[in-house]
Design a protein that fits this description.
With 270 residues, the protein is of the alpha/beta class. The chain contains 8 helices and 7 strands, in the order E-H-E-H-E-H-E-H-E-H-E-H-H-E-H. The protein has one domain (8-269): NAD(P)-binding Rossmann-like Domain (Rossmann fold, 3-Layer(aba) Sandwich). It has helices at residues 17-28, 40-50, 64-78, 102-129, 151-171, 189-192, 219-230, 259-269, and strands at 8-12, 32-37, 54-58, 81-86, 133-138, 176-183, 241-244. Strands 3-2-1-4-5-6-7 form a 7-stranded parallel β-sheet, sandwiched between helices. The protein is globular and about 60 Å long. 41% of the residues are buried.
């Protein structure tokens, strides 16, 4: 039996990037998928492709009313929500704290933090009605470190760690698990396109070569972990952080093609 057979899975930011990958994978695992995106055209196109087990809803995650409508539409069509993937988020154009505009700061917090808060709050009654559920907050390795020029983004992601853990404590006895997935650098428009006109894309300044798995991540890498965390295979995990970054947070890996280092270690062993 497929892991999400007849379960209702709501994915935000589902019309592009990693969201599309998540939707397709949950659908392939038997789920009824609710494709929530602020651009109704993107969600509608994907829903039409997937067929009757897919529903597109318009959702700006900052909008409380739209959250209520999205959950109501999901319940009316498929029944209580079993899984929420809080995937929607926005990037930051590089700027020091000193030169970060207040409007940009507020937008990052509104979408990346308040959007996930509203999502958890909106689906909780539905999950209770269904006997429990799983919430997966898509965060970032930026929540585990810091980076110059990205204070607003890093702050929004650090905040999600506290939100995830607190919600896990509050909802555990309702049979609702809350966990987070922390992607590293993944090949989506977040890194391939500039965050603002005239800005330099992250891909132009990043190389994975020093790290243990020397390639850029793909959306499917994050999706596979997200499915595991959302499924009953991870039934004993809540308030946990799952990193998928190719070793980025570990730092530079041992380079086997550096002959003087290898020779020195061989000499020490002798």
């Amino acid at each position: 039996m497929r892991r999400f057979e007849n379960k209702t899975v709501l994915v935000t930011g589902a019309g592009g990037g990693m969201g599309v990958s998540h939707v397709r994978a949950f659908h392939a695992e038997g789920a009824h998928v609710v494709i929530a995106d602020r651009d109704p055209r993107r969600g509608a196109g994907l829903a039409a492709e997937l067929g009757e087990r897919a529903l597109a809803v318009t959702l700006d995650v900052r909008d409380e009313r739209q959250w209520a409508d999205a959950v109501a539409a999901a319940e009316e069509r498929f029944g209580p929500v079993s899984v929420l993937v809080n995937n929607a988020g926005v990037p930051q154009a590089a700027a020091t704290v000193e030169h970060t505009e207040l409007a940009d700061w507020q937008r990052l917090l509104d979408v990346n933090v308040t959007g996930q808060f509203l999502g958890i709050r909106a689906v909780t009654p539905s999950m209770r009605r269904g006997g429990g559920g799983s919430i997966v907050n898509i965060v970032s390795t930026m929540a585990n470190t810091a980076s110059p020029y990205f204070a607003a983004y890093a702050t929004s992601k650090w905040a999600l760690r506290g939100l995830t853990r607190t919600a896990a404590l509050e909802l555990g006895r309702d049979g609702i698990r809350v966990n987070s997935v922390h992607p590293g650098v993944v090949s989506t428009s977040f890194i391939t396109e500039p965050a603002a006109p005239g800005a330099v894309p992250i891909a132009a300044a990043y190389t994975p070569e020093p790290f243990a798995i020397p390639r850029v991540g793909q959306p499917e890498d994050v999706t596979r972990l997200t499915l595991f965390v959302a499924s009953d295979d991870a039934a004993y995990a809540t308030g946990s952080e799952f990193v998928v970054d190719g070793g980025l947070l570990l730092g530079p890996a041992l380079q086997h093609d550096v002959p003087d280092v290898a020779a020195r270690h061989e000499g020490e062993a002798a």
